[in-house]
């Protein structure tokens, strides 16, 4: 699903964020990326989503060589990915329903399908009754769950989450991780960047550790699930 | 085939969504947007108002022009009989409605009465004035050009010494109207640019206010076309709203002018009616508004949307 071969990433300012990364994550796996602040966790996810382009090496996502994905094809490529952020990044001028519907509207689903899928996603995160609320009227944990629903509503093959529990208390963080695990169990490949080592150790999943842009763990090809 | 049909219906659906969505967004912030639309409306109303006043002025002046008379001063040696004969001949001309004859004696009497040079003329002893024909062009002839042609034709008659419009000022008025018309064109261009800038800037602000939303939609795979659409449609709504307001302003202004104008035209025993916006005028006004709206937002979107990338 995800394969990095000798990948380097140097930002425009000459900042070497990733150095010689070799990595394979199998389809349907769930893995964590950990490391200190500035280690390159976010950069790794950004390369996968083509938010930035790597400067050397090869990245293959879902069978697609990212170098071959031209700029005009990026939107189509991203429709196979779901995103989660530390700051939930919900749109506060719309209802919870409309927020979750966004990936489907972008993809041009018909309203009946949109409604069915949004309801299913909200139901799964336990927030169906809040569909018509404004996101600002929700608690932090609820907002994060809306973010999860939005990330999976279009049934992406790959779910990327950057510090999804950064703002949550331990109990809510655990719940959110469990939610990701549920989606993983139905076949979604999940990659989560987090510096909360205690939490991710308890999940008993593969942990990829970065230090100053280099990969620490060498067990690069296990792909547990 | 089914694939094409599916794609087309997706495309149509997304357009419809953006169309309605952009209107909803504008309505959600009524005060700020009404202000923008009002400014656009006034900018459109000014040149349109000038245009319609110009049309009215043209109407009035054209009325005067058809009553223009041509005075033919005949050569001195032409006597009253041949002058009268000429008048009869000219009246046969379809371009001439009437040819009035003023004999030398009549001309002298008139001149004496008006000028007060009675004494001087008496000293001369002999009547120095030629016979005069007063020509009224045919009713169907209205344009200045045709009158000009008639004048040239009359000048060439062997009996005629000189010929002139006795309403030269109508020509001057037409010239003045042409200057005003050019002024209105310049003003319209400037205000069109102003409308473009207003809409462009409004859309630019909207883009920056929606920065986060644009980033998110880009992350979830929105194409540039998808992201642009609501902004282009807002430009459309701004332009259309501005056009409507301009229409409203002009209609109200003309209503206010109608009464005093009809009082004035009654005083002149004229049946002049104030022209108001025709259906064609309204259509062009709306087309202008919408075109400017779309153009302004298109330029703005192309300049500023590129700058936003997800992070
Ligand atoms: N847009 C950018 N331009 C230049 N340098 C950048 C950019 N983004 C990140 N970097 C640099 O790349 C390195 C890795 O950054 P990254 O954001 O990937 O770290 P991180 O592991 O996600 O850290 P954190 O835990 O604080 O989020 C850092 O040294 C950072 O300064
Ligand atoms: Mg980070």
Describe how the helices and strands are arranged.
The complex is a heterodimer of chains A (225) and B (311).
Chain A: E1 2-10, E2 16-25, E3 30-34, H1 41-48, E4 56-61, E5 64-65, H2 74-78, E6 81-84, H3 96-107, H4 111-124, H5 140-152, E7 158-162, H6 170-185, E8 189-193, H7 197-202, E9 206-211, E10 214-215
Parallel strand pairs in A: 3-8, 3-9, 6-7, 7-8
Antiparallel strand pairs in A: 1-2, 1-4, 4-5, 9-10
Helix pairs in contact in A: 3-4, 3-5, 4-5, 5-6
Chain B: H1 2-28, H2 30-65, E1 70-74, H3 80-92, E2 96-102, H4 104-115, H5 118-124, E3 132-137, H6 144-155, E4 160-165, H7 168-209, H8 211-219, H9 224-267, H10 279-304
Antiparallel strand pairs in B: 1-3, 1-4, 2-3
Helix pairs in contact in B: 1-9, 2-7, 2-9, 7-9, 7-10, 9-10
Low-confidence stretches of chain A: 219-225
Instruction: Give me the CATH superfamily of chain A.
Output: P-loop containing nucleotide triphosphate hydrolases
> How many individual domains of chain B?
2
Write down the CATH topology of chain A: Rossmann fold
From the N-terminal CA to the C-terminal CA of chain B, the straight-line distance is: 39 Å
Q: Briefly note the structural class of the backbone of chain B.
A: alpha+beta
Number of strands of chain B: 4
Oligomer description: heterodimer
For the record, give the distance between the C-alpha atoms at the N and C termini of chain A, rounded to a whole number: 13 Å
**How big a fraction of the residues of chain B is strand?**
5-15%
Strand arrangement, largest sheet of chain A? Answer: 6-7-8-3-9-10
- SSE class of chain A: alpha/beta
- Ligand catalogue: adenosine-5'-triphosphate, magnesium ion
């Amino acid at each position: 699903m995800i394969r990095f071969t000798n990948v380097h990433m140097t930002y425009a300012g000459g900042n070497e964020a990733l150095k010689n990364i070799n990595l394979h994550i199998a389809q349907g796996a769930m893995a964590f990326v950990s490391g200190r602040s500035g280690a390159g966790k976010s950069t790794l996810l950004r390369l996968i989503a083509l938010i930035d382009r790597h400067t050397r090496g090869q990245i293959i996502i879902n069978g697609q060589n990212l170098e071959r994905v031209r700029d005009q094809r990026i939107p189509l490529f991203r429709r196979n990915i779901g995103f989660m952020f530390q700051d939930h990044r919900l749109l506060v001028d719309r209802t919870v329903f409309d927020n979750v519907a966004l990936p489907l509207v972008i993809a041009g689903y018909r309203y009946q399908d949109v409604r069915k899928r949004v309801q299913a996603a909200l139901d799964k995160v336990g927030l169906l009754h809040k569909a018509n609320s404004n996101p600002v009227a929700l608690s932090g944990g609820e907002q994060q769950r809306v973010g999860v629903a939005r990330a999976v509503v279009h049934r992406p093959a790959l779910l990327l989450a950057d510090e999804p529990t950064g703002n949550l208390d331990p109990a809510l963080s655990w719940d959110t991780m469990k939610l990701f695990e549920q989606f993983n169990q139905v076949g979604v490949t999940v990659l989560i960047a987090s510096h909360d080592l205690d939490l991710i150790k308890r999940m008993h999943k593969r942990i990829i550790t970065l230090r100053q842009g280099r990969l620490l763990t060498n067990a690069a090809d296990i792909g547990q699930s | 085939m089914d694939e094409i049909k599916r794609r087309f219906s997706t495309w149509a659906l997304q357009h419809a969504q953006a169309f309605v969505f952009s209107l909803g967004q504008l309505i959600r912030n009524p005060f700020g947007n009404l202000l923008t639309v009002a400014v656009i409306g006034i900018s459109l109303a000014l040149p349109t108002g000038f245009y319609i006043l110009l049309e009215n002025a043209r109407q009035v002046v054209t009325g005067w022009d058809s009553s223009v008379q041509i005075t033919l001063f005949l050569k001195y040696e032409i006597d009253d009989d041949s002058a009268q004969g000429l008048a009869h001949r000219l009246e046969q001309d379809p371009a001439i409605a009437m040819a009035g004859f003023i004999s030398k004696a009549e001309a002298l009497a008139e001149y004496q009465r008006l000028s007060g040079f009675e004494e001087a003329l008496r000293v001369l002893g002999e009547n120095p004035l030629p016979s005069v024909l007063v020509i009224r062009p045919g009713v169907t002839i209205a344009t200045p050009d045709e009158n000009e042609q008639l004048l040239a034709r009359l000048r060439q008659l062997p009996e005629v010494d000189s010929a002139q419009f006795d309403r030269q000022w109508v020509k001057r008025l037409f010239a003045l109207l042409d200057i005003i018309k050019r002024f209105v064109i310049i003003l319209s261009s400037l205000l069109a640019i102003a409308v473009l800038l207003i809409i462009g800037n409004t859309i630019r602000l909207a883009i920056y206010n929606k920065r986060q939303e644009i980033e998110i939609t880009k992350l979830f795979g929105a194409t540039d076309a998808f992201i642009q659409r609501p902004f282009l449609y807002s430009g459309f709504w701004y332009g259309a709203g501005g056009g409507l307001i301009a229409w409203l302003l002009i209609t109200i202004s003309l209503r206010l002018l109608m009464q005093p104008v009809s009082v004035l035209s009654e005083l002149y025993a004229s049946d002049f009616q104030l022209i108001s916006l025709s259906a064609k005028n309204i259509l062009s006004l709306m087309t202008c508004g919408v075109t400017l709206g779309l153009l302004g937002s298109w330029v703005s979107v192309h300049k500023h949307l590129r700058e936003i990338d997800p992070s």
